[in-house]
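[audit] Reproducing an earlier prediction to check determinism. Same input, same settings, fresh worker. If the tokens differ from the archived copy the diff job will pick it up downstream; this log only records the rerun itself.
[audit] input (578 residues):
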Amino acid sequence: MSLWSELRRRHVIRVTIVYAVVGASVAQAAAVFLPGLDLPDWALTLVLALIVLGFPIAVILAWAYEISPDGIVRTLKQGEPVSSPSGRVPVGPPPSLSALEVRLPPAEPGRRSELGDRRSVAVLPLVNLSPDKENEYFSDGMTDDILTAISFIEGLKVISRTSIMQYKGTTKRVGEIARELGVGTVLEGSVRRAAGRVRIVVQLIDARTDEHLWAKTFDRELEDVFAVQSEVAESIASALKCRLTRQGSARLQSNPTDNLEAYQLVLRGRAEYLQFTEEHVRRGIEYLRRAIALDPKYALAHAHLASASFALPYWAPVSAASVEGSAREAIDRALALDPDIPDAYIARAVWRVHFEWDWSGADEDLARALRLNPNMTDAYLFKALFGEFREQREVAVEDARRAWSLDPLSMSARHRLGECLMWAGRMEEARQILQGMIQDDPSSFSAHINLAFTARFDGNVEGAVEHYERAVAAYDVPLAWMGKGTALWRLGRTAEAKRILAQLEARAKREYVSPYLLGLYYYVMGEVERAFDFFEEGAEIKDFLTLFIRQTSAFLGYQDHPRYLALAHRIWPDDFPA
């Protein structure tokens, strides 16, 4: 960093100007009024001497300290992390993120180890310096909102939430983090919230030179947080010589809600449902509904409610039909309130694929979301998934790779890329990614499931059973039991396989079990017609997993069966003409 930039960052230039103006005014006033007070002749000389002597003292104090709502505090050195009030850098994940990925993974083949260019940015989790540690959700929410705001900067690559949240509480240096994420610029800072006010300190750092490109402290009323987010985005765009997109600029000029309590409930709801367990998803939905009750016109709350609703069938024993109506209502309401909200278009794309099999409509929605915000990782993840459903295998791989580039430490992005490579027949590449996931998290359910599939593709059924058993130990869901049972059947361990099937059928009487999974089980056991009864039932009730029927058709050998072709025509009419 240049001396001039450092002087500006520490407010020395500002203090110098202010001191000069005030000193000149005091000297002028002394020259006018002191002679009339009958003071000794040396009184004016003393005043002038004190003004001159005070100047270096003011400069030194400006260099070393700054005035804040917490009193006079030391100015941080270049590259020094923002610390807690005790002076210690906080370490370890907060309790509210304990269910998320908190390991910082070691290097693996394909993992980034070089800095990106300057127009690639990672927004590190803002450190919570609030007296009440329950405000952790607020600092995380501010991180998310600032990340979203700068995503609207044209030509800027912004690393997604899942990857940056893994650095919460880390003591790693900025340059090391930047290399792991493949970025050239890092935004870091802190949040302190107390008594209706908020203090946000942020600094933008060039990872190559450790130079502070921009830094600022915001001391605002709590209701001004939206203005802070807008100013941060505009300042970063200026520092990186970029500009906000037209839609982004318009969005940042308007507050998403005027109800501060509703805003905080959305922060809480988002923090909950992104932990992806049944308990957290349901709690997140409740927070979002409370936010909507306070402000029915809060578009983002409706969009998040739709996304949380879609998460429920994946993490709870409920059918897709149970969330169909509420999710669509939330999507329609969000878009009616704000037709330029990318989150709602992604949610509508998911709805169209799962409930209408409207593939072109889903493509249009995802394209619209990416025009509004080119850094939407979820849009690329769903593009990749929908490509898998349609056997557009190489296209799916490229979309998954794009999602991974925006979220390089995310288990979801790595899982999607590994799975797309697997279905594209690129087994060695797929295994490399999936085994890397296992190294980082030995209990990774999705990695074990897909490694079991790769083992079965290679004819290593015993190896597949091992991965299925680990998947069951990680997450007791029917998908893992189906995989294990059918693999045991292939190995001739029919009694064990039948026992697992009986357990699944008993479970289906107590809670929702995908008909598609039961269909696969019966097909492997040779009961083909009964298998297709389940497949058709899954299609009828719009079961999410049934859309994988096309991918497993060639693997299991039913791709030419008349009942499959009829079913495929219903789901993919353009690819399977009557």
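[audit] rerun output stored. Observation attached for the diff report: The two ends are 68 Å apart (CA to CA).
[audit] end
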